[in-house]
Amino acid sequence: MKRIDVISMIARKAEEKNSLIVCNIGLPSRELHHVKDRTGNFYMLGSMGLASSIGLGLSLSVPKRHIIAIDGDGSVLMNMGSLATIAHQRPENYLLVVIDNGTYGSTGDQPTATSLGTDLGAVARGAGVQEVHTADNENEIEHILKKIDRGVIVVRVDAGNASVPVIGLSPEEIIERFMAECARPSE
Amino acid sequence: MDPSISVFNGMRMTGIDLVVSVPCINLKDILPMIDSDPSMIHVPVTREEEGVGICAGAYMGGKIPAMLMQNSGLGNSINALASLNKLFHIPLLLIMSHRGVEGETICAQVPMGQLTTSLLDALDIPYVVPTIDNVEETILHAWAIASEKGRPVAVLLEIGFWEAE
């Protein structure tokens, strides 16, 4: 199982729940865009580490919508304090999915600390997040994504990027259509 | 007028409804005012860069966000202010206790204190330096610039600001 397989499952869940998605920079955003582009996807483009923070701010501001942030191991390691903030804010409409492939996948697959023993599920629990789920195979993550809508999921996948094109949208187009989607009354 | 009450009144007048914060001794009286105001969501954060991300999400979700911070945290935020706010034209109010300027007693505050306005200039972030007499309108005006231009604006509250009566 690779990252794009989990991203496909998340995209299906987002369709079913009409969720807004905040997606990590680089290949994860390109893979999401390739799998299922929608106006409710925010492709972060820069600011590595901040997907979980943007998702948190959004979930506190749009409490009637379901929010999913797609993050990676390298990015969570860069902004681990975000897990503590998420733990004490505890928004009910917010699901953070950390797809852990053990490498900095967009920069040439250098190993991250999760390849050397760091356990991000344990970090999330230690930060005080009450609902933490972990998975390392397709059946497990499919099952967890079906029944879990909040908290943190850490899913271990094999390293490797899908061969997908760059996103043909400008930053202005990404944010304008995303904000219009955020402002739309929920169904 | 009390400086903390004046800053808080300016925030209320502006309609700020989501505040992230990293404390500074000069902000200590404002933080409980935010906590007890039901119209404001208060999100204490671990580091300012995280706060920039939360405020960006809040803005996209329709809020008027502000970050209460010390100027030392500007250095912790620079990549996000450029590759998130500047790239996507996301406004943000940085309400900043400006340490390391005239009246500072802690030597470690001086280097970042002296660099703060140069860093803001380099980032193309406009800043305003209010006095106790005009801080309410200045905060309102700062957000007007931020939202019109789609960029962060800083409100620098110097050491002397807090000593006014």
From TrEMBL, chain A:
Pfam families attached to this UniProt entry: TPP_enzyme_C (PF02775)
Segments forming a coiled coil: none
Top-level taxon: Archaea
Enzyme class (EC, first level): lyase
PROSITE patterns reported for this sequence: TPP_ENZYMES (PS00187)
CDD domains with a match to the protein in the record: TPP_ComE (cd03372)
Thiamine pyrophosphate enzyme TPP-binding domain location: 41-148
InterPro entries named among the record's database cross-references: Sulfopyruvate_deCO2ase_bsu (IPR022494), THDP-binding (IPR029061), TPP-bd_CS (IPR000399), TPP_dependent_decarboxylase (IPR051818), TPP_enzyme_TPP-bd (IPR011766)
Keywords for this protein: Coenzyme M biosynthesis, Decarboxylase, Lyase, Pyruvate, Thiamine pyrophosphate
E.C. number: 4.1.1.79
Molecular function GO terms recorded: magnesium ion binding; sulfopyruvate decarboxylase activity; thiamine pyrophosphate binding
GO biological process: coenzyme M biosynthetic process
Catalyzed reaction equations: 3-sulfopyruvate + H(+) = sulfoacetaldehyde + CO2
Protein name per Swiss-Prot or TrEMBL: sulfopyruvate decarboxylase
Automatic annotation (TrEMBL), chain B:
Superkingdom, natural source: Archaea
Keywords assigned: Coenzyme M biosynthesis, Decarboxylase, Lyase, Pyruvate
Domain Thiamine pyrophosphate enzyme N-terminal TPP-binding: from-to ranges: 9-104
Gene Ontology MF: a single term: sulfopyruvate decarboxylase activity
Catalytic activity: 3-sulfopyruvate + H(+) = sulfoacetaldehyde + CO2
Keyword Thylakoid carried by entry: no
InterPro entries with a match to the protein in the record: Sulfopyruvate_deCO2ase_alpha, THDP-binding, Thiamin_PyroP_enz_TPP-bd_dom, TPP_dependent_decarboxylase
Keyword Lyase applies: yes
EC number of this enzyme: 4.1.1.79
Enzyme class: lyase
Any single GO BP term: coenzyme M biosynthetic process
Signal peptide: none
Protein name: sulfopyruvate decarboxylase
Organism the protein comes from: Methanococcoides vulcani
